[in-house]
Amino acid sequence: MDVTIPIITPAVSETAQRFLDALGRYDFDELEACLAPNVWFRALLPKSVHESNTSKEAADAYRSWFGSARRFKMLTAEHSTMASREYLRYRFLVLPPWAPEEWHVIEQAGFCRVKGDRISRLDIVCTGFHPA
Fold it and tell me: What are the phi and psi torsion angles at 81 (to 5°)?
């Protein structure tokens, strides 16, 4: 039996790219606009799990994690299509309020489902903040 297995292919989702661009610009309002109003959002964090069911709650999670950083710099951001999902990966540097003179690196990766022009499901894993 010959089976064709979907492989990761070049990214096709403009919505996923808009999401990454919004994060890179530190624009949490635009990030929220990329999410469906009833988005299913789950984040596996170093010490907890976060779940949200609205775009506002999900965007507020990003705001709470990174919104108070004194500086923010996107290092890498990429996405590709994996079957019916978009694979996302991004890494950035921040100067967090508890260490305003020390850069910290963070990486998050995961999958999202895009319906129409919004992300309807987003599941990510986060490394946490690590001194760079």
Answer: -95, 130
Kindly report the pTM of this predicted structure. 0.87
CATH of the domain at 102: 3.10.450.50
Q: Does the pLDDT of residue 101 top 60, yes or no?
A: yes
% of the chain with per-residue pLDDT over 70: 91
Query: Quick one: pLDDT at residue 90?
Result: 96
Total structural domains in the chain? Answer: 1
Burial class of residue 131, CB neighbours in 10 A (0-12, 13-18, 19+): exposed
Residue 2 included in any domain: no
Structural domain of 72 = 9-131
Q: How far is CA 72 from the centre of its chain?
A: 15
- Position 8 scores a pLDDT of 52
